[in-house]
Amino acid sequence: MTGPQTRGRGRPREPEHEELVLTAATQLLLEGGVAACTVEAVSRRSGISKPTIYRRWPHRTALAIEAFAAHIGRLVPLVETGDSAHDLVQAVARLTEYYQGRDGIVFAQLVAAAVLEPGTADLLNSRFFEPRRAALRELWERGVARGELDPRVEPDAAIDLLFGPAAFRLLLRHQPVDVDSCVHLARAALQGLILTPPTTPSPAPKTTGG
């Protein structure tokens, strides 16, 4: 009877390539920002050849975006408790908390690259923003279905109102970007997004003849 078979010490399979490359890219991003995340540096750290990396990612910015998106997706999952307004505010709070340190620097650098490098804005939207926005849209729609959120508000407009101010502050640093400040902004925005029942006018007081 033979023992359990083990895979030979050959080249890693493609999924293992991807995991090694993204892990190395994330480490480099957090250590030195986008400038440190070169294909050459990722190749050295991951042990995966540059041609193999280029077959999956056409250039360093594409690799940096995908690595950062996976990193934030793991660290800042969207949590649902059944209270959509609360969940949206907490999503802003968690994202803001991680943007206090190196993550915030990398995010700002990727946004700058989206402005300066042709095609990068589309990559940043499709790989980083859109998956998270899709999850937030679903959260919004569930809140509308439960009668918590205003159905007249477009989900994308609500997302921009809730998350836009924190991102704007992060990029310009003209106001604090701490969690409490950004939660206050999100709660202020929510005041116009929560569905409130229409008020019934009070009946006019009856008058009696003199």
Question: What would you note in describing this structure?
Answer:
With 210 residues, the chain is mainly α. The chain folds into 2 domains: 15-67, Homeodomain-like (Arc Repressor Mutant, subunit A); 79-190, Tetracycline Repressor, domain 2, CATH 1.10.357.10. It contains 9 helices and no strands. Helix 5 (84-98) packs antiparallel against helix 7 (120-145), helix 6 packs across helix 7 (120-145) and helix 7 (120-145) crosses helix 8 (155-172). It is elongated, with a radius of gyration of 24 Å. The relative contact order is 0.10. Mean pLDDT is 87; it is low at 1-10.
Structure summary, number of beta strands: 0
So, CATH architecture of the largest domain?
Orthogonal Bundle
* CATH topology group of the largest domain: Tetracycline Repressor, domain 2
Strand content: under 5%
Could you report the average pLDDT, rounded to the nearest whole number? 87
Secondary-structure blueprint:
Blueprint: H1 14-32, H2 39-46, H3 50-56, H4 60-75, H5 84-98, H6 102-116, H7 120-145, H8 155-172, H9 179-190
Helix pairs in contact: 1-2, 1-4, 4-6, 4-7, 5-7, 5-9, 6-7, 7-8, 8-9
Question: Could you name the key traits of this structure?
Answer:
210 residues; mainly alpha; Arc Repressor Mutant, subunit A; Tetracycline Repressor, domain 2; 2 domains; 9 helices; 65% helix; elongated; disordered N terminus
Summarize the structure.
The chain is mainly α and 210 residues long. 65% of the residues lie in helices and 0% in strands.
